[in-house]
Amino acid sequence: MSIHTVKRSQCHLAWDNSIPPILRVKSGETINFDCLDASNGQITPDSDHSAISQLVFSQLDQVNGPIYVEGAQPGDTLQVDVVRVRTAEWGWTACIPGFGLLTDEFPEAALKIWRLEGGEAYFDEVTKKGRIPIRPFMGEMGVARGEKGSFSTIPPWNTGGNIDTRHVGEGATLFLPVEVEGALFSIGDGHAAQGDGGTAIETPMKVTVRLTVRKDKPYTKTPHFVTPKKSEGEESYYCTTGVDADMREATRGAVRNMIDFICAEYPEFSRVDAYMLCSVAADLRLHEVVDMPNYVVGMMMPRSVLNSLGSDSRL
């Protein structure tokens, strides 16, 4: 299979199915992306808090692409295998007026520049206090929406985008619902570390993904993903999500989508059986609560539970 390369300059600033693809690939091929940080290069290692007030917001959260995947049709699922993720040597975290869960309580701009080395970062570089493990992932991975028009890259959508979900790092597999021919996949917004639901250490990123068209997962209506098992005894999860401006509806969507997944893959389960299984075995997580107007809530089911029902090799 061919390996393709996408440069930093090959990017766009909205989800819009009329944007011409920069690249056409076959299903199963691998692509290397070189991505700027979410500020689109407006913040540098030498920036201070004054850079926040000077941000051109229309240039934020650019994504590299779009990539046309041959064979992808509306109703299919695009499988995105995250093969490799590498950060720059620095990153930043900011309080941006108007953004965040407590924006009304933190109205002033603030900026922290981090040094990223040796798989960790420190809140205080001098005293080495506040050690943060580096666990990089891409905040933006999505496909074009079926609706005509231009849609912001800042909030998440049912087709992905700014899902800001820390569990889709190296070794993870993301599933996205295809709504347009070719899927038109794009990626960006590298994160060196982030807590569930929070903001991140933003950083330029080099990432490699493999894109595969799936015809056997028609129940994928929002992003689903599988987390890697990185060590003995560590659990791997299958996760469904709900994406909505109402957090309760996003939560209901995550559970409903897990029920749909279980009933499709394990047809011996009724919907009430699947609902009860979700209640006793799966965890609900707030994956993304920062980028208004939409939230991302996930339901994470241990794959050990799914394996006990039968093989999950189809996932």
From TrEMBL:
The record, for SUPFAM superfamilies, names: Acetamidase/Formamidase-like (SSF141130)
Which superkingdom?
A: Eukaryota
Q: GO terms for molecular function, please?
A: hydrolase activity, acting on carbon-nitrogen (but not peptide) bonds, in linear amides
Give the protein name, as stated in the record: Formamidase
Give the species this sequence originates from.
Answer: Roridomyces roridus
